[in-house]
Design goal:
The chain is built from 7 helices and 3 strands; from the N terminus they run H-H-E-H-H-E-E-H-H-H. By secondary structure, it is mostly helical.
Length: 148
Amino acid sequence: MAYSQLNINNQICFRLYTASRLVVQCYRPFLDKLGLTYLQYIVMLVLWEKDEVFVGDISKKLMLDTNTITPLLQRMEKEGFITRKKSIKDTRQRIISLTPKGKALEEETKDIPECIANYVLKNNLNIEELQTFVPVLDNIIGALKNQK
């Protein structure tokens, strides 16, 4: 190999991608039972924090483009988890609200984070080590989020 910096084992991005993919894979069995994808689940997390939010606010919070979020929200509406209505102040904006079915999912998902943490903790990690990743990941996200 001419450039050692191109060795896959030297790539932080590969480790982040792999960790992300494996985390989503761990969530899949729990979310499949509820009829949610991982992306739908994180939208629900935003809505459980604060119901009745603009599509743009969800996009910002999740750092995803509205053209990624909009079709997802349309599917979630068809599945009965949310409603989408036009804003009275600005009819170009949509307000996303939880339905009773969407609100009920919060109770059904409350144990999922602990189950996922237990998977990780079974592998010789402890909760303190796991928590040290949060500020590091936040710093990486902060450094990269405005790069386009």
